[in-house]
Design goal:
- Two copies of one chain form a homodimer.
- Chain A is an alpha+beta fold.
- Chain A has a domain at about 5-120: Jelly Rolls, CATH 2.60.120.
- Helices cover about 50% and strands about 20% of the residues of chain A.
- Chain A has helices spanning about 5-10, 20-25, 85-90, 110-120, 120-145, 150-155, 160-165, 170-175, 180-190, and strands spanning about 30-35, 40, 50-55, 55-60, 70-75, 80, 95-100, 100-110.
- In chain A, a hairpin with a 5-residue loop joins strand 4 (about 55-60) and strand 5 (about 70-75).
- The N and C termini of chain A lie far apart (about 35 Å).
- The mean pLDDT of chain A is about 95.
- The interface of A and B includes residues 69, 116, 132 and 174 of A.
- Chain A binds a DNA duplex through helix 9.
Chain lengths: ~190, ~190
DNA sequence: GAATTTTCTTGCCATATGGCAAGAAAGAAA
DNA sequence: TTTCTTTCTTGCCATATGGCAAGAAAATTC
């Protein structure tokens, strides 16, 4: 499946009927990133979203103690960005970084808003995508609220995306634990 | 401020310009609930949202171990409902319960969708509200992921809504800890 | 206001997770 | 390959949170 097709498939989830060609075309900036390179850093304007063509990306920040906290991962066929800032129209709070060499296609928020005005179906996309994000974040919130670290790790194990290519220390902070603890949990499971 | 005005103020946050009268009128079912009464129970159709006129409401469920887990609270001027189900068009997963005597105004999802079709500005509401929910849930997720139970409790302390009227055992499960632990944390702080 | 129910606290001890530092293993660079 | 860097594991011990049960306190009901 071509990159274009992947984006098409993604948009079709939210816009089942109708033409999405000008939407696809509005993702008009392609950016290649090397492993560990930043797509975005805190303080920058982040008035855009990116669609992952290739590679794995992560969103992270440094907490008050200076510890790196991974907030989110994105895999090919998904969007990536600092959604907290994007939705609030603020400057970036997070880093967005390539976990491995990768490529994204970018759409500016201004373009997105033009599309919203042009076509109510595209506006439906805006709503449905935000609803989709809500649902995802709620599920992760619930898992942090109610499951043990081991149970959360087992959830990740069920998704092959997480188990290849991603250093365990990133997964540990994503799970809300230290890499030391994750190492012990893994030892316990096998 | 009248209940009508409260709802108006709420909607204006998302629809700053333009007329919201028919939107307000679509919240056309008023329901009074006694303390501990359920607005919604798991398995029911939950194709509506409620706006809190009076009282405090909470969303909760029973986890695998049979322990009650409070997922969310809503106070006057806010919406309440099983958003996970609402956004996914599924049957209710959660209980929605009055923490104290209260009153809500309800809008059916079907009405909401009529409004979306009628007026693109209302569709903007749908998008912005979902974005607002995303931001809120993300912030809570981050606090669960990165803060200690004590730090999370201190965050709640900063919001007067939580510190009146809500039994500590509900707050404890909202924080992801047992009521016993919350009791000890409180003892430690004072 | 007495009785009943619900909520909150506390003691004792168990388990989960963290902090640090050393070394092993794996991966990247030369 | 060899070297260098990054990541992962482990031991020792500390801290955070949980489980249970009893009693205290508060709220509700009669």
């Amino acid at each position: 499946m071509s990159d274009q097709d992947k984006l098409n498939t993604f948009l079709r989830k939210y816009i089942p009927l109708g033409n999405v060609e000008d939407f696809v075309e509005s993702f008009d900036v392609v950016r290649k990133l090397n492993k560990k390179e930043f797509l975005l850093e805190p303080g920058q304007a982040c008035s855009y979203l990116a669609f992952v063509n290739k590679g794995t990306f992560r969103v992270f920040f440094y907490d008050n103690a200076g510890t790196e906290v991974t907030v989110w991962f994105s895999f090919p066929g998904m969007m990536i960005g600092d959604l907290l800032a994007f939705f609030q129209d603020s400057r970036a709070i997070f880093y967005v970084q390539a976990v491995e060499d990768g490529e994204v296609r970018i759409i500016a928020k201004s373009k997105l808003e033009e599309l919203y005005l042009k076509n109510p179906e595209y506006l439906q996309f805006g709503r449905k995508y935000a609803e989709y994000v809500s649902v995802n974040v709620m599920q992760r919130m619930l898992s942090l609220q109610t499951l043990s670290a081991e149970e959360r790790y087992l959830e990740l194990l069920a998704n092959p995306n997480y188990m290849q290519r991603i250093p365990l220390k990133y997964l540990a902070s994503y799970l809300g634990i230290t890499d030391t603890s994750l190492s012990r949990i893994r030892k316990n499971i096998v």
